[in-house]
Amino acid sequence: EIVLTQSPGTLSLSPGERATLSCRASQSVGSSNLAWYQQKPGQAPRLLIYDTSNRATGIPDRFSGSGSGTDFTLIISRLEPEDFAVYYCQQYPASPLTFGGGTKVEIK
Amino acid sequence: EVQLLESGGDLVQPGGSLRLSCAASGFTFSNFAMSWVRQAPGKGLEWVSSISDSGGSTYYRDSVKGRFTISRDNSRNTLYLQVNSLRGDDTALYYCAKRAPTWGPFDYWGQGTPVTVSS
Q: Tell me, what's the pLDDT at A95?
């Protein structure tokens, strides 16, 4: 099983600041099959990034993903008020599919 | 517009059973793999099970093997999860999720149906 470790657990930032979220895998993620999701309270997760660096439909370009092998990063270039949420990374298609524990981006 | 609408969640005693359903619309259901993902209260996301577009291949996390069964009816555009022998650690919000092509990530999610296991 590929274990994904996200850091930090909580990120306290102000609107307009840059957010850098990390996701580290216990073994190499094949073909860069790494996705990022955003989840707001009371809502279902929403796909942001797939295949490490591709934005999903309708996702603004302030969200970007990078990385390879075991180290991946999600960057939010300038935080908007609606970006404060929990973010999860996920690897696929290796079974079992696994998610990281999440990073909460909160307003400072 | 893709829509996934789950139903069937309930309060059930330990050892009990439920059948969760997910009605899909807005896409050609029979062309895509589907999955169930759950989230315990205040916790993170946990993949539960996946099924291929035809229903011929199914996959489960170890903790639910032998207790949960995923299935689909492509004529009704509906995904199912039969959950048996429920335990307290199965308490969660169960999401239905569409897989992107070729066993990709979860590109669309329902709003979830709650399962609570308690005596």
A: 86
